[in-house]
User: Fold this.
Amino acid sequence: MAVIHHTTLKPTKLELLTSWLPSRPWYVGGAGEPELAKAGGFRLDDPQGEVGIEFMVVTDTSGPHPTSYLVPLTYRGAPLDGAEHALVGTMEHGVLGRRWAYDGCHDPVLVAQLLALIEGRVQAQDQNTSDTPDREVTRSSIGDGPAPTDFTTPADDQEGTELSASRGATLRLHRVLRPAPDNAALLPPEATGHVAGSWHMPDGTRARGLFVVVHSGPHA
Assistant:
């Protein structure tokens, strides 16, 4: 299990994201600087123990209505070859030293562990406490046989982030999070897998919605 160090980060994750988020095609804020607050998320473990994997939810309150974003991040002790386009920034970690933070949708370690989560082979971990499962994160994988495993990076960033696999399958990450209506089915009928979770709203309530959806393509 990954050990979560409660220590200093310079700059902080929110400071990195404040400058990075407006550069994303799925960012829906205005021309001004976002005002970000941590709203939720979870972690996954790297089996090799080398890469930190975190799915952060941050809420921007700079506009007339708060907007929550899903930001998967990986933290590495050295640059990831070929991923310069996905670099969010570097931080000085009080215990681990220099860390390179990447948009995790473009990091093969995060993608592999996300697929393992969808299939139930690993469990989501609490964002702030070591060795503690996050029971609020749900997942499913349905259909004939296992989910595709050959999703490739780099990912396609448009309204969300989408990765493609063989036979037309897609893995779509919802970047702008939308709470599901009460008693509504979370999973679209054509989906074959999902990850869902909850996050804090600025008014103190909790929202719940889809983070990730798998769509299988037509059979060959």
Remarks:
- The first helix runs from residue 13 to 20.
